[in-house]
Amino acid sequence: MFTDPIADYLTRIRNAVMANHRVVEIPASNLKKEITKILFDKGYILNFKFEDETKPGLIKIALKYHPVTKQSAITQIERVSKPGLRKYVGTEELPRVLNGLGIAIVSTSKGLMTDKEARTQGIGGEVICYVS
């Protein structure tokens, strides 16, 4: 059992990118599924598939690479709010990742969303991770 399943999720993606893997399999949860959907919508991953027929469930993520340079779309992915130290921000303190080029995934009262979406809706929440 993991003490921090989101950190494990991010680490599996980071390790797969560093090893130039095309697909990574991760144990599923509802929060991880929502993070995966956001990464897909923002163009950081190529595709994903939820396989719920196995007991814990699996998320298969196809990583995205540049066709010529073979560089990954995800250059950095890091956990911000940890179980030992949660990081909550208001609307005014929502972070900008790489001056707006990256995204921060924020857990709000209206669900998981990026920092830009939370800023337009005028709500804050817990900063889950930074992706660039």
Count every helix, treating DSSP H or I runs of 4 or more residues as helices: 3
Radius of gyration, rounded?
15 Å
Q: Characterize the overall form.
A: globular
- Quickly give the structural class: alpha+beta
Low-pLDDT windows of residues = none
Number of DSSP E strands: 8
**Helix proportion of residues, in percent?**
25-40%
Order of helices and strands: HEHEEEEEEHE
| Average pLDDT | 95
| Main β sheet profile | 5 strands, antiparallel
Strand content: 25-35%
Distance between the termini: 28 Å
Short description:
The protein is of the alpha+beta class. It is 25% helix and 30% strand. The chain contains three helices and eight strands.
What does this structure look like?
Helix content is 25%, strand content 30%. It is built from three helices and eight strands, in the order αβαββββββαβ. A hairpin with a 6-residue loop joins β2 (45-51) and β3.
List the helices and strands and how they pair.
Blueprint: H1 5-18, E1 23-27, H2 30-41, E2 45-51, E3 58-63, E4 77-79, E5 88-89, E6 103-108, E7 111-114, H3 115-121, E8 125-131
Question: Which descriptors apply to this entry?
Answer:
132 residues; five-stranded antiparallel beta sheet; 3 helices; 8 strands; 25% helix
